Amino acid sequence: MDLAPEQLQYLTIPEILREAISIPKQSPKTFYLITLILIFPLSFAILAHSLFTHPLLVQIQNYSQTDPSQTRHEWTLLLLFQFFYLIFLFAFSLLSTAAVVFTVASLYTSKPVSFSSTMSAIPKVFKRLFVTFLWVSLLMMAYNFVFVAFLVLLIIAIDTQNVLLLLLSVVVIFLLFIVAHVYITALWHLASVVSVLETVHGFAAMKKSYELLKGKTFYASVLVFVYLVICLVIGGVFSSVVVHGGYKYGVFVRIVVGGFLVGMLVIVNLVGLLVQSVFYYVCKSYHHQGIDKTALHDHLGGYLGEYVPLKSSIQMENLEI
Q1: Vertex 284, ends 188 and 310: CA angle to 5°?
Q2: What is the DSSP string of 233-253?
Q3: Within 10 A of 316 (CB to CB), how many other CB atoms are there?
Q4: Rounded to a whole number, what is the distance in angstroms from the first to the last CA of the chain?
Q5: CA–CA distance, 220 with 237 (Å, rounded to integer)
Q6: Residue 22 to residues 15, 239, 258: CA-CA distances in angstroms?
Q7: Angstrom distance (rounded) from CA 269 to CA 44
Q8: pLDDT tens track, the chain, 321 positions
Q9: At what angle do helices 251-286 and 181-197 cross, to 10 degrees?
Q10: Which UniProt keywords apply (predicted)?
């Protein structure tokens, strides 16, 4: 990012994307290794998940009427697979976020960048991201509770033919999915960056993210919505062609399409992580919160066990680590 800090606030969405895409050119080897070791396994797992669960679901349906004991066995396998899949997804998602945000910040402060230094910083960064993730999870649980409650109301409205209740349920469900889900995702992504680059994490990071989003909520919503739509399209094509397309497409076509879609998702996830890093600086600039590059440089060095001055600042405030 060669722009002056005060210029970042004026970036449009296309310009934010252009800035994000240009970042890997500054350290191609580092981003190549991050993509290969962290983002590729994450993207592959997201798409391949249905490839492995679909046969188990088919077997459960086949055995449900004829062999209850075998059905229980298949359910056990499915639940175990789901458990380990979620652990893997959660771990690599946080690891990818930590690696990209730390590397982008290092480049921003002209700090020497290498894959080894990034990996050395990840353990401390991961702890902070994990606490923030737990707070976001609580928010998502509350969101899901409300969402399910209105789904139940929708079913009741259909059953009782209550037009007013039906209309209310549909409107609320639509708003919850389109508005609340997108906003919470944007809040989470920005809070993740805050957790890495500032001295706050957890609920405090979410609160800081909420403040930073003010005035840039529309930009954040558009970026998140486009990201989710692209992921949904990639997942839908993968499901129809690779997972369920055995009767229509040959093995070679399914392998080629599957490989292409995994590659596409890798690029989308990498760009998404880069965008959320750039967007943090855009929000900071918009709120006229100056970023002291020297203090940020020292803050990043703290993750590597380097000496950190007792009094420095990322936002012209006292930094306490």
Answers
A1: 95
A2: HHHHHHIIIIIS-TTTS-HHH
A3: 11
A4: 27
A5: 26
A6: 11, 32, 27
A7: 11
A8: 666 677 788 889 999 999 999 999 999 999 999 999 999 999 999 998 888 887 777 777 766 666 667 677 777 887 888 888 889 999 999 999 999 999 999 998 888 888 998 999 898 899 899 999 999 989 888 887 877 777 777 777 777 777 777 777 777 777 777 788 888 999 999 999 999 998 899 999 999 999 999 999 999 999 999 999 999 999 999 988 988 877 788 889 889 999 999 999 999 999 999 999 999 999 998 998 877 778 888 888 888 776 555 444 444 444 433
A9: 70
A10: Membrane, Transmembrane, Transmembrane helix
The token pair at 203 is: 């609920």
Q: Token pair of 181, please?
A: 């889900």
Residue 74, φ and ψ in degrees, nearest 5: -65, -40
Around Cβ 154, how many Cβ atoms within 10 Å?
17
Distances (CA, A) of 95 to 34, 115, 125, 267: 10, 13, 9, 17
Q: How far is CA 29 from CA 35, 36, 269, 270, in A?
A: 10, 10, 18, 14
Q: Which amino acid is at 73?
A: H
d(CA 141, CA 163): 29
